[in-house]
Specification:
alpha/beta; globular; Rossmann fold; 2 domains; OB fold (Dihydrolipoamide Acetyltransferase, E2P); single chain; about 250 residues; five-stranded parallel beta sheet; five-stranded antiparallel beta sheet
């Protein structure tokens, strides 16, 4: 008896990302169960059932990918391929607990490997998949604890909490933490540091800057095609064109 086509749900807040995943899926022998542009839509679709697998974006405003997993419950979630831009966290957690992950930007060959793993997972024991997702949620809860950074100070070392940081700037293999009148250098690349931060509190606005959303006072035009964020201290941070749409969505709630 021929097995029914895999029914796949696509979840991503970026329309272009959803379109690309849909086009890749349409080339394969799968059925597209639907598309969701936010976490709430994804929870509703998954709770209705009829989905064999899901490509789930991790970074979404409002309910992110982990919130979706928590809302649906690990026991009811179908096999998941997480889609992420956070390479450090992906390698550390998804490689252990998820069926697979796709690191943006990914190519068609990498997509096909992920789809192949989804098909294999379809026949895996349900309890095994649920347990892996439960462990992923446990790891995520540990990651969500507000990080503290041990930095050098004039009189030795001091702890700086994430809440005290207004924005973070990439400086080669270092990250500069701007906290009040002080700037502290950490010997850690910005991409690695970003993966340890709360994605709802800190927002990437360019390749070289991450800002504390609670410290943003305004988003203002700068040039014809560029905008700047005005922070509580008066600091102005340029928003790269490729990040502006996401920045506007997050700031608008």
């Amino acid at each position: 008896m021929t097995e029914a086509p895999l029914s796949v749900l696509v979840v991503d807040d970026e329309p272009l990302a959803r379109r690309r995943l849909r086009r890749l899926l349409e080339r394969e022998a799968v059925a597209i169960a639907g598309e969701c542009g936010n976490g709430r839509e994804a929870v509703d679709a998954l709770q209705k059932g009829g989905v064999d697998a899901v490509f789930l974006d991790v970074q979404m405003p409002g309910l992110d990918g982990f919130d979706v997993l928590e809302a649906v419950g690990a026991a009811r979630m179908p096999p998941v391929v997480f889609v992420t831009a956070f390479d450090q966290y992906a390698v550390r957690a998804f490689d252990v607990h998820a069926v697979d992950y796709l690191l943006k930007p990914f190519d068609a060959e990498r997509f096909r490997r992920a789809l192949s793993r989804l098909r294999q997972a379809r026949s895996a024991p349900r309890d095994e998949l649920s347990e892996r997702l439960r462990r992923l949620l446990q790891d995520r809860e540990a990651e969500r604890r507000p990080p503290r950074f041990l930095v050098r100070h004039a009189h030795g070392m001091r702890l700086v909490t994430a809440q005290d940081v207004e924005w973070i700037e990439a400086q080669g293999n270092y990250a500069a933490l701007h906290a009040g009148p002080d700037t502290h250098l950490l010997r850690e690349p910005l991409s690695s540091l970003e993966a340890r931060l709360d994605g709802e509190q800190f927002l990437r606005v360019s390749r070289s800057a991450v800002v504390n959303v609670s410290r943003v006072k305004a988003l203002s035009p700068w040039t014809k095609d560029e905008h700047v964020l005005v922070l509580a201290s008066g600091t102005r941070i340029a928003v790269s064109r490729g990040y502006r749409e996401r920045v506007e969505r997050v700031l608008s709630g």
